[in-house]
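All the exercises in this workshop are built on plain-text protein records. A record pairs a protein's sequence with a compact description of its fold. Read left to right, the backbone structure tokens trace the chain's path through space. Once this layout is familiar, the rest of the handout is easier to follow. Here is such a record, shown just as it appears in the course material:
>
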Amino acid sequence: MTETTGNTPAEENTSNEMPGVPEDLAQCAMVVESAMEHLLKENHPPLAIASALLGGSLGLLARSMDRDTILHILDSAAHSVRTGEIHAATQAQTGSESEKA
């Protein structure tokens, strides 16, 4: 018998849209993405949105982990920018969204 208690349609959709991603991470990502879309619709500049998210993220990391771990995360992010990985992933996501439309 399959346990379905506590699984809402929104939770099931999250795991379907982001296979291989832990459920809590997928849910957080969807909330952040929704907030960004809302702010863009309200005509807030993308740089202001990104800066606020980055500042908030760094503050959260600072409250929950040590400096060396934060620097490792930032180094990994910088590496993704330098190699073009982040732009390729963004373009792939944009392409798959336009295919859905």
